[in-house]
Amino acid sequence: MIRFDTVTKKYPGNPRPALNGVDLEVQRGEFVFLVGASGSGKSSCLQLILKEQGPTRGTVHVLGHDLVSISNRKVPYFRRNLGVVFQDFRLLTTKTVFQNVAFSLQVIGKSRGFVQEAVPDVLKLVGLDGKGGRMPHELSGGEQQRVAIARAVVNKPQILLADEPTGNLDPATSAGIMQLLERINGNGTTVVMATHEAAIVDRMRRRVVELVDGRVVRDETKGGYGDTASIIDITPLPERGEQAEKAKAEAEEAASTPDTHSVAVPVTVESVPDAAPAVPEDADDTATDADTSEHLSLAERLGLRSNSDRGDDEQNVGPTT
Ligand SMILES: Nc1ncnc2c1ncn2[C@@H]1O[C@H](COP(=O)(O)OP(=O)(O)OP(=O)(O)O)[C@@H](O)[C@H]1O
Ligand SMILES: [Mg+2]
């Protein structure tokens, strides 16, 4: 689904490569953490998957496309299979929650009917049922990130890329966001998440790819954040006798008490709308260029649309694998 073959990425004016001979393969349905110190190449890796950058050497294949040779015209259509979430949410501040999510469908020409059905469904999925009319500034950080996730997954992408999605959130809110990403992964979306947050990685026990200076130094199926995670827990065991009994009782009580700090995520899993649109992409009832042109630069920044994405001769290069 994603394959890097000896990928090296150098940026102009920076002699040190951001990625250096990276080989990486991610299968459909995986949940992969990219970890490593600041500057180790995590974001560069995600940008290569999105075709926001090209490799200096090596090849990148995503969803059956060779991203080195894919034509510029096809890139926006390729990107429709990918959702992206960032640390700073990047919501449209003058639009409501509903409009923020709807926008990502409108720019790719989904019909009004499709939008009206899909947006409430996905808002329910992310736990924002009934909050569609709010403005972003009327939401908490965790709620804003849920909107960003809703926007990223409303078109049911095959791959969700998340670059430090919990970086601006407190631990309890982050836990709720991670539950949501797990749920989206459980619905079949491949998730690749860059993060610094050891506690999250250690708790999830998912695949961990660690970068150091642009090289993959570790690729573990059920890994922790770093070396410290593999060190045996040296927390002192309770003393024998009465104290041990007390500790055991406390542990049992804790296990049976719901964690009141965790952020609630709806119990019922609502699936996001089918990847196959309810109406043809070229249906009449679509947003016009006039509707969307004012937001084109933003759409481009979000990887939703580019200037070359406006012709009638569009060829959807959608899912091939
Ligand atoms: N556009 C750019 N131009 C020049 N150098 C860049 C550019 N983007 C990244 N770099 C450099 O490439 C290296 C890897 O950066 P990258 O952003 O991929 O790291 P990161 O692991 O995501 O770091 P962080 O955890 O701080 O987000 C760094 O040395 C960085 O300075
Ligand atoms: Mg980064």
- Average pLDDT for all residues: 80
Q: Could you name the CATH class?
A: Alpha Beta
Provide the gyration radius in Å.
Answer: 21 Å
Name every ligand kind in the structure: adenosine-5'-triphosphate, magnesium ion
Uncertain residue segments: 228-245, 254-321
Taken as a percent bin, the fraction of beta residues is 15-25%
Which CATH architecture would you pick?
A: 3-Layer(aba) Sandwich
Q: Helix/strand-derived class?
A: alpha/beta
CATH topology title: Rossmann fold
Q: What would you give as the CATH superfamily?
A: P-loop containing nucleotide triphosphate hydrolases
The arrangement of helices and strands along the chain is EEEHEEHEHHHEHEHEEHHHH
- Work out the helix count: 11
Q: What are the SSEs and their pairings?
A:
Blueprint: E1 2-9, E2 19-26, E3 31-35, H1 42-49, E4 57-62, E5 65-66, H2 75-79, E6 82-86, H3 97-106, H4 112-125, H5 141-153, E7 159-163, H6 171-186, E8 190-194, H7 198-204, E9 207-212, E10 215-220, H8 227-230, H9 242-256, H10 289-292, H11 296-301
Parallel strand pairs: 3-8, 3-9, 6-7, 7-8
Antiparallel strand pairs: 1-2, 1-4, 4-5, 9-10
Helix pairs in contact: 3-4, 3-5, 4-5, 5-6
Bound molecules: adenosine-5'-triphosphate and magnesium ion.
Overall description:
The protein is α/β, with parallel strands linked by helices. The chain has a single domain, classed as P-loop containing nucleotide triphosphate hydrolases (Rossmann fold), CATH 3.40.50. Helix content is 32%, strand content 17%. It has a six-stranded mixed sheet, sandwiched between helices. A four-stranded antiparallel sheet has the order 2-1-4-5, with helices on one face. Strand 9 and strand 10 form a beta hairpin. Helix 3 crosses helix 4, helix 3 runs parallel beside helix 5 and helix 5 runs parallel beside helix 6. The structure holds adenosine-5'-triphosphate and magnesium ion. Adenosine-5'-triphosphate (ATP) binds next to helix 1.
